[in-house]
């Protein structure tokens, strides 16, 4: 690996980060639904929101991620080829997936201004990130889809490294740290491993579609289709294949902001996507949804957030009503207890 003094990363972080100094700063950044956002500050906000770095002394914390990643390389691979040290089956799947994704990554990177020279090391750095994950914990044994997270977080890291003339290994170290946390958050193995629970979730989503978008639901039912046939992929890779990279960043901002209640917010994002689907004659609905790419992402996120906040307000109202009911019940029980005992309140 191309090794540098970590002080260079400290200086780069201090130069690129002008606004993110606390967790609240990171939360405020993620709440902004707009395209013009500082990518270095997005990177730092994600690192903070996933508790990868502490919001004090951010520059040194960023440098720490790089040195820790170097230590892992020395520990697991000793300058050898990582792909030769993880087992043939896993090596084959990782290389097949990443090679297949290289063309996709080249296209989406170009959309956000990264050059071919910027991404030239991705072909071996992304497999190395995934190989390192598999050596870290059995949880990260490679599953198809993991590469999407590594590529997307790597692209975000490249904004940091290229703007500071740092080697791409710095972006690689950020990708490793973020991919590790995001994979825990998404838990693809749970989604695919417990299909009864997954199917039950999509049945619930289908009921929501029938209520909110009855015409779409009827079209899907004509071919005996449901949300499982398009939204499972959305769930597995957080809608990444549906959008440009800049739009994916924006959607992930909204998801990571609500990671503690993502099961609920995910349903809102699914409904938000369907809100932009028009019914066309002689077009099979499932195919239209699967192939549609003309999303208005700002409008989509605002739609999902409004639905989510409305549910939250409804829940809070019901919660307060329940508390009031319990308090009234306690008062009534106390009243009847004292009256039934012949005790006069004025004697107390």
UniProtKB/TrEMBL annotation:
Protein name in UniProt: Rab-GAP TBC domain-containing protein
Sequence ranges assigned to domain Rab-GAP TBC in this UniProt record: 36-259
Keywords in alphabetical order: Membrane, Transmembrane, Transmembrane helix
Source organism of this protein record: Tritrichomonas foetus
Keyword flag Secreted: no
Transmembrane annotation, as ranges: 320-338
Classification lineage: Eukaryota, Metamonada, Parabasalia, Tritrichomonadida, Tritrichomonadidae
Cross-referenced SUPFAM superfamilies: Ypt/Rab-GAP domain of gyp1p
Pfam family, one: RabGAP-TBC
